[in-house]
Write a structure and sequence with these properties.
alpha/beta; Beta-Lactamase; Rossmann fold; 2 domains; 12 helices; globular; disordered C terminus
């Protein structure tokens, strides 16, 4: 396969992803190119089954020499790919059974606001804080980065602040408006999340986006930044507010955990945990759990009683909190057909 043919092939496949409004493209030896649409994998059977040579050629045309070197050294590489200045993809190239595979996630070029994302506008209240830690959580592929980007873009258009993002790789590109924005990519602009975050203390930042809280060092530095005059927005792969608290505390050695609970209780602003649920006619709609720290939540964190957080969320609707069950029940009530009711109810189970 020539370079020209490979370039045209990958462009055609990425064009299909964009036209179908799919979220991902998978290229695996011995399979049809496959897209993920509304959470389901759909093979593009009109295309040829991918050979070893073709899959490698497709990966080669989108990788830089540095990407290829890292792939050979580590067995996988993450990077972003700009498709004809029309769409951006978050790419992971990796080896499996000795062959190259690709997973490419479409990152919408335009940053949507909360209304367009069917998210409550009250989430903008978190952007008004000058310091503290906001956690956006949920499974992989359920919109954490998109929600975080909507919040940062709101700050960009409404405040005069310095925003620094630390991502792996950079996903959304912000058009600077009222804010000064610096976007740093792990592996290219900084060696790690923790090193990039430590540098924030010398960069006069007001708002910091951390693409993922991955390890003890990053979590510890994030909490320190949140109590020293920075608004920190970070994502975490957890399923609820209570689980999020436990995950953060459990990262630390046992002898530090009481101190960590106290620090987390002080700096935490809230936890937004979300899922994307299929809806009739295509597309997905978010279901949320929203925890806003109040004195009750703060005390539960300090006293190692995170298992009681769900009860506080359930009884604090007037304060803006929403339980996942209430969010799902609201979706059920808004359903226009029994079929959509069943989809949501099955998710509940």
């Amino acid at each position: 396969m020539t370079i020209e043919h490979s370039e045209q092939k990958i462009k055609n496949l990425l064009r299909i992803v964009a036209q179908q409004n799919a979220s991902d493209l998978h290229l695996v030896v011995g399979r049809y190119p496959t897209i993920r649409l509304d959470g389901k994998l759909i093979p593009l059977s009109q295309e040829n089954i991918l050979s070893i040579e073709e899959t490698k050629a497709l990966s080669d045309v989108i990788m830089s020499e540095d990407n290829k070197k890292e792939l050979m050294e580590k067995g996988q590489v993450d990077f972003s790919y700009n498709f004809d200045d029309k769409a951006r993809f978050r790419v992971n190239v990796f080896f499996q059974k000795g062959n190259v595979s690709l997973a490419m996630r479409l990152v919408t070029g335009r940053i949507r606001n909360l209304e367009e994302l069917n998210l409550p506008s009250m989430l903008y209240e978190f952007t008004k804080y000058t310091q503290g830690l906001l956690l956006v959580t949920g499974p992989v592929g359920h919109g954490k980065s998109t929600t975080s980007a909507a919040l940062l873009d709101y700050i960009n258009h409404n405040e005069n602040k310095h925003i620094v993002t630390i991502e792996d790789p950079i996903e959304y590109l912000y058009e600077q408006d009222r804010c000064l924005i610096n976007q740093r990519e792990v592996g290219r602009d900084t060696h790690s999340f923790s090193e990039g975050l430590r540098a924030v203390f010398r960069e006069d930042a007001n708002v910091v986006l951390i693409g993922e809280l991955r390890d003890l060092d990053t979590i510890s530095t994030a909490m320190t930044a949140a109590e020293t005059g920075h608004l920190i927005v970070a994502t975490l792969h957890t399923n609820s507010a209570a689980q999020t608290i436990d995950r953060i505390v459990d990262v630390f050695p046992a002898h530090q955990q009481n101190q960590v609970r106290s620090q987390l209780a002080s700096v935490l602003l809230g936890v937004v945990s979300q899922r994307l649920i299929p809806k009739v006619g295509g597309g997905r709609v978010p279901a949320l759990e929203i925890m806003i720290k109040n004195s009750a939540i703060e005390n539960l964190i300090r006293e190692n009683k995170s298992y009681q957080i769900d009860s506080v969320i359930e009884t604090s609707l007037k304060d803006g909190m929403v339980s996942l069950d209430k969010s799902l029940a609201s979706l059920v009530q808004r359903c226009s057909s029994a079929r959509n009711n069943n989809q949501v109810i099955r998710f509940l189970k």
